Amino acid sequence: MAPTNLLLTSLLFLLHLTLLPKAFTIGINYGTIGNNLPPPKRVAQLLQSTLINKVKIYDTNPEILEAFSNTGIDLIVGVENTQVANISSTPSAAADWFTARVAPFIPATSVVAIAVGNEYLTAADSDKLDHNALVRAMQNLHAALVQRGLDRKIKVTTPHSMAVLASSFPPSASTFADMLLPTMTAIVGFLADTGGPFMVNAYPYFAYRDNPKTISLEYALLGNATGVPDPKGYTYNNMLDAQIDAIRSAIASLGFQNRSIKIVVSESGWPSKGDAGETAATPENAKTYNARLIQRAQSNKGTPMKPKESIEIFLFSLFNENKKPGGVSERNFGIFNSDGSKAYDVDLSCQFCSSDSQKTSGVGMNRGPTVWCVAKPHSDEKVMQGVVDFCCGPGGVDCRDIDENGDCYAPDKIHAHASYAMNAYYQMHGRNYWNCDFKGTGIVTFSDPSYGKCRYSGQ
Ligand SMILES: *[C@@H]1O[C@H](CO)[C@@H](O)[C@H](O)[C@H]1NC(C)=O
Ligand SMILES: *[C@@H]1O[C@H](CO)[C@@H](O)[C@H](O)[C@H]1NC(C)=O
Ligand SMILES: *[C@@H]1O[C@H](CO)[C@@H](O)[C@H](O)[C@H]1NC(C)=O
């Protein structure tokens, strides 16, 4: 690309950024226990026209991994509960799993996390499952990612149900169930050390269904109910906040109050249909709950205990799944019908990506087409050397590729090495334009700087 073009694209890039809203995440769970669901390619297209920018699946269905390549949508893949024991057996079993199931699809598909098991510790047959195996499986997978230099991009975690708590009320006094304490301590320690999020599936719906006389519907529906006081002085206007803070307290009670551990709501939703007794399972309530959930995710709102810490949320679920076992409501959590029409009217439009911007041809903060950061031609060599020293040192970039024998060592020129280091730093820090400044020596480009065996990462 000619320098004038480069300048133009980077100006356009900056212009785009100033027009974009604050980055937020709205994820959705994409379950596939149905015999009438659209093919993954169509699902990926469907989601690209919405504001959803993360998708969580429960396995590593290769068709889905392939379908989400180059969509700008991040993917969280899952290890099935039945596979946990195998992956826990040896580090090489975990490496083999990753090599076979995930590696073939990256980086075209942006895999950002691996959810090891789903509600593994509280599954119906969990007494038959080895709890330590879950921890070992997580450790083994993390080690496999470290070996490939992917541990910063791909986080290892495990989604829990609220049943891991001994009690959830009052939120400030909540703890994990006694019999899970050793396992939870190991898991939370692992997450604190590796930067993975603590995932919880939180369903005010079920709490309301089971206690409709004591819980107000507005409180369960994420409304602004009459405040429920907590003895520590917090006031809860909706149950989801109380559930999240209950998890927060339980984590703190293990002795992790000073470590930063992000809590992610890996599932939450409301069914539009249920069995005869499930009177709150209506399209109106499902619409109300999910619309509020989406609004909440966009608002970057925290909870009473941590008002400034926004919560990442994954809606449950994308489709009604007609082959799911259990009660009627289990098969009716979907926002979409299998033909791609909405099960009820909830606004998923993305004002900044519905036209031709952001997702299709423009640039998003964390999505859109891939962009790279390189050193400007003719930049000052001393400054560039300083940039390399910074990126490869405190900046945390893995610079082995520009060491002697590395794939990007040749040409042994400071401009090339600085480009490599700048790009790695930029990709790692969320592709914000200020992470490609480097005292004016960095510039954003739309053309892949990779050459020969030297690969520049891009998302
Ligand atoms: C784990 O799974 C792999 C692939 O399915 C298989 O080859 C291997 O024998 C299994 N290992 C154990 C310990 O079950
Ligand atoms: C919720 O209700 C309280 C008391 O009625 C009010 O002060 C507060 O502003 C309301 N919050 C929202 C988000 O509507
Ligand atoms: C957490 O930090 C506070 C304030 O710095 C300190 O007083 C307390 O001892 C720390 N607690 C733990 C468990 O490290």
Topology:
Layout: H1 3-19, E1 26-29, H2 40-48, E2 54-56, H3 62-67, E3 74-79, H4 81-89, H5 91-101, E4 111-116, H6 131-147, E5 155-157, E6 159-161, E7 165-167, E8 175-176, H7 181-194, E9 198-201, H8 204-210, H9 217-220, E10 228-229, E11 235-236, H10 239-256, E12 263-268, H11 283-299, E13 312-315, E14 372-375, H12 381-392, H13 414-428, E15 442-445
Parallel strand pairs: 1-2, 1-13, 2-3, 3-4, 4-5, 6-9, 9-12, 12-13
Antiparallel strand pairs: 7-8, 10-11, 14-15
Helix pairs in contact: 4-5, 4-6, 5-6, 6-7, 12-13
Bound molecules: 2-acetamido-2-deoxy-beta-D-glucopyranose (3 copies).
The site of one 2-acetamido-2-deoxy-beta-D-glucopyranose has 3 residues, from helix 4.
Domain X8: 371-456
GO molecular function, one term: glucan endo-1,3-beta-D-glucosidase activity
Family: Belongs to the glycosyl hydrolase 17 family.
Compact summary:
This protein has helices at 3-19, 40-48, 62-67, 81-89, 91-101, 131-147, 181-194, 204-210, 217-220, 239-256, 283-299, 381-392, 414-428; strands at 26-29, 54-56, 74-79, 111-116, 155-157, 159-161, 165-167, 175-176, 198-201, 228-229, 235-236, 263-268, 312-315, 372-375, 442-445. The chain has 459 residues and is α/β, with parallel strands linked by helices.
Classify the secondary structure makeup into a structural class. Answer: alpha/beta
* Overall CATH architecture of the largest domain: Alpha-Beta Barrel
- For the record, what is the CATH homologous superfamily label of the largest domain? Glycosidases
Average predicted confidence as pLDDT: 88
CATH topology group of the largest domain: TIM Barrel
Summed up, the helix count is 13
Number of strands: 15
Low-pLDDT sequence parts: 12-22, 351-368
